[in-house]
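// run 5 | inverse folding | seed 20
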């Protein structure tokens, strides 16, 4: 009698070992990369980029107008510092805008390039084999033909090739079959759209990196050369050096503004001369939407105003004629303007300098003892001036605006008011020391912007390609057609099972019905060509 061996205790399962720290970090990075390069993430980042650009359209930007930013600070002294801390006056150069831009750029690269490689591989791949049961597809049906199966498939193949399908003939398990496909341009348009968006971002980034622009007010009869030192405000890319600027000078000969009956401006044009300082000068006329384009540079007209002119006669008989300075418009509707004319070289010493601070009205009218303007056209120009004597502080090393006096000099008593008057053209203000200031007229000035953007053509080409890709994506459709031929049981002929799959919009049912009718017509025509002709009947003797 045998005894059973005692059962061995079950071995407990060994605990799974934890992955190493390197594998956990690698897995986290891989998951993060897949999420970043997903199309959903790219769409979200594109929406965030558009949303981030909204403050740049609603709030004044330092890169466009420091004056408007200063005006916003004056109007909103409590809110403006908070917005400034959030870079809302420098939106397009802020760290958070750059972060969104960079993430979108990386997401598009990681999303589009693998899809492009997969699409190029699919272009060389023949259409897939027909499914086993074609009648289960959403759009399917049967056609009958007296032709043999091979001849019927020949007619189907010919008709599909005429309709620009890629066609493959196979011998399937259930009989000979045809697989056809077209609409690859839809996916090509999709990829072209996203690649063009990527190229557009590259062009914009390149323009910011290697581009620059500067703004300056130029009075008629004056000019400037392309140099950062001459601009009132300028911005430059991080890869731009002052030696990279093109050597071109621009002189303003005449500015013309035309107005409608409701006093809205209809056109601004400026007659300018331009060219290399050592070369030949050329003349042209530019407008708001018609800039000067030369060698990749642009000169735009962005605004205009008036520069009142004065003649100053000193007690010793020394005269200075037609001295002027641009007065900046404070009311764009009537072009009422404020400004200052600084004359540091008229006095005998540093503390005997002269300055005029004033208000210019193109069409002046006294209302309640205050000069105002009622029309932007210079129909009755007048100026209200206040004359100051003292030290202007131009050589103190502290920056100050060329369009206004340093108020701290007035508050400290370094500049003292010595006279004030409202003057029409030809009228004079005589100061206590015998100096005579005469309002001699006005000139117009143009606000010009010199811009260099090497990415403009790149952006234009990318935008056109983006539009073409979008049209292909929206208008084209991806379509597959399958046909299988089987002999009719019990009698001659062929029964064709048809099916189609359509992606990309449109009524697939109506399209399949139309395709079936055309294929039936092709089969009928092929059958008529192969049918034996009727024998000729011999005449009776």
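// decoded
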């Amino acid at each position: 009698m045998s005894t059973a061996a005692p059962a061995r205790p079950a071995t407990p399962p060994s605990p799974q070992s934890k992955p190493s720290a390197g594998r956990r970090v690698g897995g986290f990075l891989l998951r993060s990369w897949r999420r970043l390069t997903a199309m959903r993430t790219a769409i979200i980042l594109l929406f965030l980029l558009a949303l981030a650009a909204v403050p740049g359209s609603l709030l004044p930007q330092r890169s466009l107008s420091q004056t408007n930013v200063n005006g916003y600070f004056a109007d909103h002294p409590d809110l403006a510092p908070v917005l400034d801390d959030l870079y809302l006056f420098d939106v397009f150069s802020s760290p958070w805008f750059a972060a969104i831009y960079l993430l979108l750029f990386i997401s598009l690269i990681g999303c589009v390039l693998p899809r492009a490689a997969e699409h190029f591989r699919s272009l060389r791949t023949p259409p897939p084999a027909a499914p086993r049961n074609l009648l289960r597809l959403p759009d399917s049906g049967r056609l009958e033909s007296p032709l043999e199966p091979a001849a019927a498939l020949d007619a189907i193949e010919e008709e599909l090739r005429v309709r620009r399908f890629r066609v493959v003939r196979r011998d399937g398990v259930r009989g000979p079959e045809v697989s056809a496909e077209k609409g690859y341009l839809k996916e090509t348009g999709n990829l072209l759209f996203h690649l063009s968006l990527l190229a557009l971002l590259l062009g914009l980034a390149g323009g910011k990196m290697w581009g620059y622009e500067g703004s300056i007010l130029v009075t008629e009869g004056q000019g400037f050369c392309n140099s950062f030192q001459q601009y009132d405000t300028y911005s430059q890319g991080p890869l731009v050096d002052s030696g990279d600027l093109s050597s071109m000078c621009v002189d303003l000969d005449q500015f013309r503004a035309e107005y409608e009956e409701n006093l809205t401006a209809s056109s601004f044009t400026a007659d300018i001369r331009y060219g290399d300082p050592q070369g030949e000068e050329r003349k042209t006329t530019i407008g708001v939407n018609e800039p000067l384009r030369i060698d990749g540079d642009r000169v735009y007209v962005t605004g205009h105003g008036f520069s009142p002119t004065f003649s100053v006669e000193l007690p010793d008989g020394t005269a200075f004629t037609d001295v002027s300075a641009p007065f900046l418009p404070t009311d764009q509707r009537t072009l009422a303007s404020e400004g200052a004319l600084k004359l540091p070289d008229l006095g005998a010493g540093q503390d005997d300098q002269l300055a005029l601070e004033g208000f210019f009205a193109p069409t002046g009218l006294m209302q309640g003892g205050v000069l105002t303007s009622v029309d932007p056209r210079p129909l009755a120009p007048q100026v209200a001036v206040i004359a100051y004597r003292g030290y202007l502080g131009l050589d103190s090393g502290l920056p100050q605006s060329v369009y206004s006096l340093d108020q701290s000099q007035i508050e400290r008593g370094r500049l003292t008011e010595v006279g004030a008057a409202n003057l029409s053209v030809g009228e004079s203000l005589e100061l206590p020391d015998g100096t005579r200031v005469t309002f001699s007229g006005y000139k117009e000035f143009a606000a010009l912007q010199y811009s260099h953007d090497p990415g403009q053509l790149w952006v234009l080409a990318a935008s056109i390609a983006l539009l073409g890709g979008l049209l292909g994506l929206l208008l084209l459709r991806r379509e597959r057609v399958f046909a299988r031929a089987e002999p009719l049981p019990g009698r001659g002929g062929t029964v064709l099972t048809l099916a189609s799959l359509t992606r990309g919009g449109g009524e697939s049912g109506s399209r399949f019905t139309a395709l079936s009718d055309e294929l039936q017509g092709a089969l009928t025509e092929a059958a008529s060509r192969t049918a034996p002709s009727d024998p000729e009947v011999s005449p009776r003797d």
